[in-house]
Structure to design on (278 residues):
């Protein structure tokens, strides 16, 4: 009989997020296929796991995939892990799943941490219907082709982004979709986890002043909710200060600039003043 292909979720940051079932599976299978064996070996060392590791990534998936299917057909159980989160989402694990199904090999998911859903439920945006888009294509032409399909999309959109391209991506989303409510999750489950919520303009201003660091998940409102402000999440001190500075640069007196910013964000002038002090 064929073995079982296990799709094993691993932590996206905090090692305590791994499940008992995942640990048992990683110890019991014949081999674990990993995107980056050096990265996974750190996880194994932490939890004292000694199972054999083999590389399975975008560059090796053809040869490694054939090897893993042969192992499964011979009766060995195999677990697939990504560097973080659920395998098969924005990684080559999905290709191995298709090959296993074609070979009539059982496929068993072991659920666990996931950055997209973790950011979504904490975003304050609509969670009823949503679409995961992952990382945008590398060229602007392909980005435009992809995003043009979702300009009138009514549901919440989810993206992944690196710190080096965050501001460019946020600016491009604003160019394509106009002003929308957005929540950006940074370093989810890790020590410096934080959420920046507001309009695209507010969030762009924030990251122009605060250098992006870590890995990011972007939750963007769909057309059905795009004009509403994210509830109960006031703009950051950086955004308030930048808004006042822009009005003063435009010729307004500082007190009047503070008053207008307070009105815009439904805050008291004292709140704006405190932001300036900070």
């Amino acid at each position: 009989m064929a073995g079982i292909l296990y799709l094993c979720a691993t932590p996206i940051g905090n090692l305590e997020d791994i499940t008992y079932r995942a640990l048992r599976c990683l110890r019991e299978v014949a081999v674990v296929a990993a995107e980056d064996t050096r990265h996974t070996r750190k996880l194994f060392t932490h939890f004292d796991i000694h199972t054999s590791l083999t590389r399975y990534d975008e560059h090796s998936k053809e040869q490694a995939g054939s090897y893993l299917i042969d192992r499964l057909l011979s009766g060995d159980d195999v677990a697939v892990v990504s560097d973080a989160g659920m395998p098969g989402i924005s990684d080559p694990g999905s290709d191995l799943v298709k090959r296993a199904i074609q070979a009539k090999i059982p496929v068993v998911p072991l659920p666990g941490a996931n950055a997209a859903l973790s950011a979504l439920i904490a975003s304050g945006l609509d969670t009823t219907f949503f679409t995961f888009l992952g990382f945008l294509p590398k060229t602007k032409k392909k980005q435009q082709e992809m995003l043009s399909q979702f300009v009138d999309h009514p549901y919440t959109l989810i993206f992944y982004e690196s710190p080096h391209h965050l501001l460019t991506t946020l600016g491009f989303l604003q160019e394509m979709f106009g002003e929308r409510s957005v929540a950006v999750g940074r370093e989810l489950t890790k020590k410096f986890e934080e959420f920046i919520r507001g309009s695209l303009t507010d969030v762009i201003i924030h990251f122009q002043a605060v250098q992006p660091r870590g890995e990011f998940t972007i939750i963007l409102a769909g057309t059905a909710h795009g004009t509403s402000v994210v509830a109960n999440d006031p703009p950051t001190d950086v955004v308030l200060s930048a808004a006042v500075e822009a009005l003063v640069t435009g010729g307004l007196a500082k007190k009047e600039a503070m008053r207008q910013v307070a009105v815009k964000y439904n805050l008291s002038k004292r709140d704006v003043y405190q932001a300036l002090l900070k």
Observations:
- The chain is about 40% helix and 15% strand.
